[in-house]
Amino acid sequence: MKKIFSFLTLFLILLLTPAFFLNAVELNASDYYRVTKRSSSFIFQDIAYENIKAETRTDMPNGWDQGTGGNQTIDINKWYGQQINILSVPSSSDAMVIPWSKQSGFNWNMISITEMAKDFEAKHPEYVVLGGVNGDFYDWHNTSDFGQSGLGLEVVGGNMLRYFGAGWNGVGFKNSNTSDELVFIDGNKVSRTAMPVLTIFDENGEELKRIVLDKFNENINDGETAAYFGRVIGDITTNKYGETTYSNRKFQAPTLGDGNIYIVQDAYRVIYQADEGSYYGYGTISSTNKADGVPQTGFAVASKDPEVQALLNLGTNIHVQYELTGEYAGIDNIIGGCSLLAYDGNLPEYDSDPYLTTRAPRTIAAQKADGTVCLITMDGRQKNRNMYGTNQQEINAFMKSYGITDAVLLDGGGSTTFFIREG
């Protein structure tokens, strides 16, 4: 049975790019971070869990929440308590770091990450999830037609479930057993194929053919192949935040074109987030009757290409998705993220954004010089438990002390969550 270290998804925000490191900050970590208690154990082979009780101090400007649930002023001469949880996956490990999310109905599902882990194992019985943290920021105002999704890129095992326009950052995991495992995804450099790609598989799951489609939700000419996905429609209103949102959602099936029709009626996974331009489908052809149409749970392909027609039959597995191009092509596991916290051992100049000057709970994906991937949470906003949360200066002091060379900030605050498997 394979082991998997699941990096569970759901949440994003745009902040910074590598150019941010033109002016790096000098930091004496011991002035701002000190450990008071440390415990560690191996949860599987060389995969370690570490719990650190620590104290931090800061002389950065005050943010809108200083870790106590209010706008209390920080005493720059006082040390404040912290709890830090770390899961470390050495580059030599058989375990992998993989994003995961769950969709049903017209939504990404807002469920706990332990429920996501159970969902992953139910769909991948050959794997065991060892632990994880929350990931991307998410559409908690429910403004997308296929709602409650993460706000950034989501690629799982080479499958691009969600795409976004230029500007949203992220973090990728190579799982390559090298010293270069973690990749900062600069949102301004993300690109994809102009059309989705159709992959056809044989009965053993081997790839038979892979083609870039000629059309999408359009009629086709001789020699062409197209994919057809539905969309979500509903009443469009403005919420209290002044954002467009949807209510009374319902499915609108696509109008199928001419040619031979191949319908996947009950897909293993199908996403049609039309207002974001994100489409994904994988499943088995169960109908070739155009009159059956495309249900909420499916998608379809039409072809006037004899070579493609010869490979598509009832019972054939097919896969339709856009694919990444450019420098991030080939990175099979990506989740939306926030700002770049460290790059090649360099710490950034302090940013004045309240998201970074504020003391808050934090979730971080990081890497050490030897390629060890660290998934980190820092608890906060729990004054009565001596857990205050960290700002950028305190995060930097911890990273320098712990030997972190590369790090990306993920969703924090109330979303910060950490779990490991017992037994």
In short:
The protein is mainly beta. 7% of the residues lie in helices and 37% in strands.
Structural overview:
The protein is mostly beta strands and about 425 residues long. The strands form nine sheets. The chain has a seven-stranded antiparallel β-sheet with strand order 2-3-4-30-29-31-28. A five-stranded antiparallel β-sheet has the order 11-10-27-12-13, with no helix packed on it. The radius of gyration is 23 Å and the shape is elongated.
Characterize the biggest β-sheet.
7 strands, antiparallel
Query: What would the principal axes of the Cα set say about the shape?
Result: elongated
Q: Show unreliable segments.
A: 1-23
List the total number of helices.
4
Strand order, biggest sheet? Answer: 2-3-4-30-29-31-28
Average pLDDT number: 90
Structure keywords:
37% strand, five-stranded antiparallel β-sheet, 4 helices, disordered N terminus, mainly beta, 423 residues
